[in-house]
Amino acid sequence: MNKRRLFLQQLGLLSVGLGMAPTLLAQALNEQPSGELNSPEGKAAAAASITSVGLQLYTLREFIQKDVKGVIKKVAKADYQDVETYGYSVKNGYWGVKPKAFAELLKDNDLVSSSGHYDFEEYITKGDTEVIKQYIEAATTLGQTYLTVPFLAKRLRSKADDYRSLAEKLNKAAEICQSANLKLAYHNHDFELASYGKTTGLEILLKETSPALVDFEADLYWVARAGKKATDLFKEHPGRFTMWHVKDMDKNSPNLNTEIGSGSIDYKAIFKEARQAGLKHVFVEQENFAAFMDPFKSIAQSRDYVKKTLLRHT
Length: 314
Description:
The protein is of the alpha/beta class. It has one domain (3-313): Alpha-Beta Barrel (TIM Barrel), CATH 3.20.20.150. 42% of the residues lie in helices and 14% in strands. The chain is built from 15 helices and twelve strands. The chain has helices spanning 3-11, 22-28, 40-46, 61-64, 68-77, 99-108, 121-126, 130-142, 160-179, 201-208, 220-225, 230-236, 267-271, 274-277, 295-310, and strands at residues 54-56, 82-85, 112-117, 146-149, 183-187, 195-196, 199-200, 214-219, 243-246, 248-249, 257-258, 281-284. Strands 1-2-3-4-5-8-9-12 form an eight-stranded parallel β-barrel, surrounded by four helices. A two-stranded antiparallel ribbon has the order 6-7. Strand 10 (248-249) and strand 11 (257-258) form a beta hairpin. Helix 6 (99-108) packs parallel to helix 8 (130-142) and helix 9 (160-179) packs parallel to helix 10. 45% of the residues are buried.
């Protein structure tokens, strides 16, 4: 029996399948959608129990759109236990695979999906909540806990008031998610850390969204690209950064990624602050690969470093 199957059996997930209620899945993975464990103190305590490493499937975007089954099988072979989806549409599902079939594919490969990146632009610009309900349906089918806002178009972030408006909309969307026992999260890039007077877009979002409703997925590479320290964010906003995107910065070309542990970001220092951040889920992501590197060997190398080296610092 491989380690991934043992991991899931210990949680009792195989017997009930990935179609279980998100609340039950959340409890099994130390994920409480509400209550004391959603407080900063509870989130910090949960960091001590992290044992699995996830992969943001955008890392393999050039492959997964051509061969969904083959890529998922290779992700499992690289010893990942969790995947974060991207690119879902009501018409095409996940790269041409409908949610129910994709959930079965994950189950067959002993994988879970804790989070998904979903396009919220239509909601942000038009206030259409129907699209959120459609995302909730798909996420529930997969057993996901988080609906994550992945990106904010440039035209929607030209001034501080844009972020204040977004914060209000995130709170409303999060209430809809909460009613379905799901959680809303926001994923940053570097532009949220640009200054607007004495504040930044990310500071506005952190201060004007409800900690009980909205979590944040810290993309640690983009924080570093913005010239900021992730550890400072964790100290200033304890418990808010329950998910992390972990990708390293090439030492010679900061605009490029490299395998975790091979770049310039001091991840050992960052992982020491996992409890303060409230970390629950780690997702490896890499937006580019060196010409000589096999992407599937790359993700295995990064996974091993996170698992065997960095998680020991939490």
